[in-house]
Amino acid sequence: MAVSFVVNGEERRSAADQMTPLVDVLRDEFFLTGAKAACREGACGACTVLLDGNPVVSCLVPVGMLEGREVRTVEALAPTEELSPVQQAMEEHDVVQCGMCFPGIVMVLTSFLAECPQAGPDEIKTALVGNICRCTGYERVVDAAVALAQRR
Ligand code: FES
Ligand code: FES
Question: How many C-beta atoms lie closer than 10 Å to residue 56's C-beta?
Fold first, then answer.
């Protein structure tokens, strides 16, 4: 049975098997390749998207659970040339290395800083506890997020 849900403001329909992970539907069916399928075990955060506004690891969300729900992916943050504030802060601090972890980090920070716009370094580190960066650029990620929070 097909599942209908909203992705980045558009009504979408997937006829994939109900247990197919959301990350695979996004990437293979809808060609939204921002979310990365890295560990596929919920451990790295690279596949993070927002589900009804909250960050989830999309490798562990079966598409069958999504009827009527709303998904937001990193592609929605900068629909035009203009970067989102979080992306802009990352660019200003020259944070990105290989980029594998970044869609997840950006989605977590986007959600977290919307809730806690003036968060400090410790809160930001806690928010990012589920996001692993194999290039280990954590300090600059936190610096960029703190700088953004301080501007608010
Ligand atoms: S691929 Fe989903 S948490 Fe690592
Ligand atoms: S920038 Fe390479 S994994 Fe984070």
Answer: 17
Q: 145 C-alpha to center of ligand 1: Å?
A: 22
Long-range contacts, stretch 79-86, CB < 8 angstroms, 24+ apart: 84/110, 85/113, 85/148, 86/110, 86/113, 86/145, 86/148
Shortest-distance ligand to the CA of residue 103: 2
Q: Taking a C-beta distance cutoff of 8 angstroms, is the pair 34, 103 a contact?
A: yes
- DSSP code of 141? H
- Say if CB 56 and CB 50 are below 8 A apart: yes
pLDDT tens-digit series, residues 13-28: 999 999 999 999 999 9
Span 74-126, pLDDT tens digits: 999 998 889 999 999 999 999 999 999 999 999 999 999 999 999 999 999 99
How many residues make up the chain in this entry?
152
Q: Ligand 1 centre from 150 Cα, in Å? A: 30
82 CB-contact burial (10 Å; exposed 0-12 / middle 13-18 / buried 19+): exposed
